[in-house]
Amino acid sequence: MNRTSNWRSAYIVFILLAALLLLVGQWGAGVTTLVLTAALAQLVRIGNHLETLAGVLNEGSV
């Protein structure tokens, strides 16, 4: 199973929340939610890369 599929539903929920906040006029909260969602996506990507790197390094040391 792809590790990013676990986060896909969370991204959708956060983006829908941001869209709802923007539609009701809460611009600051909507933009903040979008920025934090983008930051979360980057952190997940970095974590996946670090896990892959750790796996490669562990295979090389065995």
Tally of alpha and pi helices? 2
Number of domains: 1
| Helical fraction | over 70%
Largest sheet: number of strands, sense, barrel closure? none
Low-confidence stretches: none
Report the C-alpha radius of gyration, rounded. Answer: 16 Å
Distance between the termini: 25 Å
Order of helices and strands: HH
Oligomer: single chain
Structural class: mainly alpha
Strand content: under 5%
Q: How many extended strands?
A: 0
Average pLDDT value?
A: 87
Q: Overall 3D geometry?
A: elongated
Summarize the structure in words:
- This protein is mainly alpha-helical and 62 residues long.
- It has one domain.
- It is 87% helix and 0% strand.
- The longest helix has 35 residues.
- It is elongated, with a radius of gyration of 16 Å.
- The mean pLDDT is 87.
Q: What's this model, at a glance?
A:
The protein is mostly helical and 62 residues long.
Ordered list of secondary-structure elements with their pairings:
Blueprint: H1 5-23, H2 27-61
Helix pairs in contact: 1-2
Keywords:
0% strand, 62 residues, elongated, mainly alpha
